[in-house]
């Protein structure tokens, strides 16, 4: 059966084969009807990915290139949803049927000029009567255009056998970025932050302070916690193996969380129902959820 619920999970999972390839994963749904809808969507995505992989390299279009990049590596990025939006924006700007090898320096310069003229998220949320909305930062422009497009070109060259006679000179299009600002807490601010933390998110932020790990590394699974060996083993940035000892402080944070969720260590309680999320139930803490709470 292509949709089933494992004994140790509250969610239905999908499991199917296409063209000799197996596709397995969680639907993140506890209802069979929604799970089957997710499974159908996954099948469509798998068919599209297989079609992209079969496309000949000598006629590689922007649409095929960004689609293949996302299918092979992009979907596994920590912020895959944002990356998908960036890639889709590139395809829309250049034209989905434009050949990748037709993009030159002039095209990239136009892309950067267009992107830097857009309004950023902070600008959209400005107060009524405030000054003109802030444009997208130089760092965001670089990440979402030049650096991302260079990464797609690099993968096409190294992994797909593509050749570019007039590849853009990437460093010429990078905007200068201001020096990183270091922000220190002033008197009373630490206490104010502590008071503002929701109780269901408190264990997560306590673990952040106690472990010193990066944000993505703090999104623990119970399978990564070895009580017997007294350590947490994670895969960190650049696939580095990270070992964190289970100190008395960290044990005190994690022990009360057992039984909240079969897979994820840190969870939150939904305050309202939305889609498959039901009010009052626990769900795994996510990267975006943490950023919103912070």
Explain how this protein is built.
40% of the residues lie in helices and 11% in strands. It is α+β, with helices and mostly antiparallel strands. The strands form 3 sheets. Strands 1-2-3 form a 3-stranded antiparallel beta sheet, covered by helices on one side.
Principal-axis shape: globular
The percentage of residues in β strands lies in 5-15%
> Strand order, biggest sheet?
1-2-3
Oligomer: single chain
Report the C-alpha radius of gyration, rounded.
23 Å
Order of helices and strands: EEEHHHHHHHHEEEHEEH
Largest sheet: 3 strands, antiparallel
Q: How many E strands?
A: 8
Helix content: 40-55%
Low-confidence stretches: none
Q: What's the tally of helices? A: 10
> What would you call the structural class?
alpha+beta
Task: Give the overall average pLDDT.
Answer: 85
Distance between the termini: 42 Å
In short:
This protein has 294 residues and is of the alpha+beta class.
Features:
alpha+beta, three-stranded antiparallel beta sheet, single chain, 8 strands, 294 residues, globular
Secondary structure elements and pairings:
Blueprint: E1 3-4, E2 13-18, E3 21-26, H1 32-53, H2 62-72, H3 80-94, H4 105-116, H5 121-124, H6 138-159, H7 189-196, H8 202-211, E4 225-226, E5 231-235, E6 241-245, H9 248-254, E7 267-269, E8 282-284, H10 287-293
Antiparallel strand pairs: 1-2, 2-3, 4-5, 5-6, 7-8
């Amino acid at each position: 059966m292509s949709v089933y619920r494992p004994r140790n999970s509250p969610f239905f999972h999908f499991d199917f084969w296409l063209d000799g390839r197996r596709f397995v994963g969680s639907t993140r749904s506890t209802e069979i009807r929604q799970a089957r809808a997710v499974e159908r969507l996954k099948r469509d995505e798998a068919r599209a990915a297989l079609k992209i992989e079969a496309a000949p390299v000598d006629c590689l279009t922007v649409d095929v290139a960004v689609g293949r990049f996302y299918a092979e590596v992009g979907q596994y990025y920590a912020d895959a949803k944002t990356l998908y939006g960036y890639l889709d924006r590139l395809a829309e700007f250049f034209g989905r049927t434009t050949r990748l090898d037709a993009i030159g320096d002039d095209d990239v310069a136009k892309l950067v000029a267009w992107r830097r003229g857009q309004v950023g998220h902070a600008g959209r949320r400005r107060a009524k009567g405030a000054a003109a909305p802030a444009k997208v930062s130089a760092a965001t422009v670089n990440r979402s255009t030049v650096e991302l497009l260079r990464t797609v070109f690099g993968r096409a060259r190294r992994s797909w056998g593509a050749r570019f006679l007039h590849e853009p000179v990437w460093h010429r299009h990078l905007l200068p970025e201001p020096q990183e600002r270091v922000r220190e807490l002033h008197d009373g601010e630490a206490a104010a932050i502590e008071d503002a933390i929701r109780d269901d998110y408190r264990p997560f932020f306590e673990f952040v302070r106690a472990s010193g790990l990066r944000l993505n590394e703090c999104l623990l699974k119970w399978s990564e916690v070895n009580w017997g060996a007294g350590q947490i083993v994670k895969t960190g940035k650049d696939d580095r193996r990270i070992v964190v000892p289970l100190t008395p402080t960290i044990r005190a944070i994690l022990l009360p969380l057992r039984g909240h969720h079969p897979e994820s260590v840190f969870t939150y309680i939904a305050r309202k129902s939305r889609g498959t999320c039901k009010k009052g139930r626990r769900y795994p803490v996510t990267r975006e959820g943490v950023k919103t709470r912070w």
